[in-house]
Amino acid sequence: MKSEELSKKKFYQWLPEERRNFLEEEGIELSKIASDTLTRLNTLSENVVGQVRLPLGILPRLIVNEKSYCVPMAVEEPSVVAAANHASKIFNQNGGVEAVSIRNGIYGQIVLEVAHDFDLVRFTEEFPELIELANRKFASLVKHGGGVRKIEASRKDNLVFLKVLVDPAEAMGANKTNAILEFLGNKLEKQINVEQTMYAILSNYPTQLTTAKVSLDINSVGGPKVAKKIVLLSEIGQTDIYRAVTNNKGIMNGVDSVLVATGNDYRGVEAATAVWANKDGSYTSLSKWSIANDRLIGTVTIPLAIGVVGGSIKARRDIQQSFNLLGKVSAEQLAEIIAATGLANNFSALLAISTKGIQAGHMKLQARNLVATLKANEDEKAKVLEKLQESKQYTQEAAVRFLDEIRKEKN
Ligand code: MEV
């Protein structure tokens, strides 16, 4: 299309190829992308010009509630998949992870501005009818086992805060919940002494909680001394915010990897988890480790507003691939697998910190990234990797120096 014609359209209305041509004419180098992929991606997001890809790794076997799953993990940090794999082997030897969920629904919030004479008690008497009305309007959600479950109200001066609990069934439910809230917001605006609906939107407040638990024979984790160190580390994380946030980052390594691989909203889970970690008024570790009867017991609870349908899950082939790996799972099962993976990553981190330190394993894997950036053939790269690992010098400088040496030796 000619540039005068393009300038009449908004940037988001351009075809993705037009955006790419424009950027390339500006001198920006873009990665190659197949035209059908670009067209497909353009239906998923806005202003699309390409894609960012992540490696998909797997936990070949993780036992959760006596069922074995192959867990997809999409993440660029190699130690995350390696750590979860290491832990899953120890978990599996000990019978696997037990997990339970409370999945009552997610909250939506409607805030109304009300007149002085507004009667909250009379207003709440209308709620059963409102719930029925919404559930009739959103009958397809009810058919899938979900629906509006509860409305609670509180008043602060001229504002009334409504908490609407929506069970989204097998979906995460953000879109459906927002539609329900806007529908209810419109109805409520017409009630006596309600001046206006200020807003009606889903809240990411922690709900849909899943707890994962393991009970490990102390000998399978390296004996009582190691187990005691893990417990001490965990105790430090209960009160020391510097340790707590890092402990939780380790848990989210596993959680986010599975969320990304399954097309779930990791931003929502991250936001809710930060609130959950602070639920008693001070930020703390999400996991707890203790010793009882010669067993190391670990638990973690995570708010997981996730789904196995809805959003872009069906439209994305990469996400369908993850579900092929997982096999048929319900939203509850997926939440339990995610929490179990988070606990696996946490355990591996604590085990490494309590024994040989985190860097040994991390750097071994990071060496692969260093080597990948070298302009060298595969044989040279393999030799550089060997030298980096042997010498334990994990820097770009060392990689370049070893490559030089290898080439000199050859000539
Ligand atoms: C690194 O990605 C995560 C860890 O720092 C977590 C932890 O310290 O518990 C290893």
TrEMBL record:
Please write the reaction equations for the catalytic activity of this protein: (R)-mevalonate + 2 NAD(+) + CoA = (3S)-3-hydroxy-3-methylglutaryl-CoA + 2 NADH + 2 H(+)
Name the source organism. Answer: Lactobacillus gasseri
Q: Which InterPro entries does the UniProt entry name for this protein? A: HMG_CoA_Rdtase (IPR002202), HMG_CoA_Rdtase_bac-typ (IPR004553), HMG_CoA_Rdtase_cat_sf (IPR023074), HMG_CoA_Rdtase_NAD(P)-bd_sf (IPR009023), HMG_CoA_Rdtase_sub-bd_dom_sf (IPR009029)
Q: Which protein are we looking at?
A: 3-hydroxy-3-methylglutaryl coenzyme A reductase
User: Keywords of this protein's UniProt record, alphabetized?
Assistant: NAD, Oxidoreductase
EC class of this enzyme? oxidoreductase
Give the metabolic or biological pathway: Metabolic intermediate metabolism; (R)-mevalonate degradation; (S)-3-hydroxy-3-methylglutaryl-CoA from (R)-mevalonate: step 1/1
Q: Which family does it belong to?
A: Belongs to the HMG-CoA reductase family.
PROSITE patterns listed in its UniProt record: HMG_COA_REDUCTASE_4 (PS50065)
Checking SUPFAM superfamilies in the record gives:
NAD-binding domain of HMG-CoA reductase, Substrate-binding domain of HMG-CoA reductase
A Gene Ontology molecular function term of the record: hydroxymethylglutaryl-CoA reductase (NADPH) activity
The EC designation for this entry is: 1.1.1.88
Q: Do you know which PANTHER family this protein is assigned to? A: 3-HYDROXY-3-METHYLGLUTARYL-COENZYME A REDUCTASE
Any one GO BP annotation for this protein: coenzyme A metabolic process
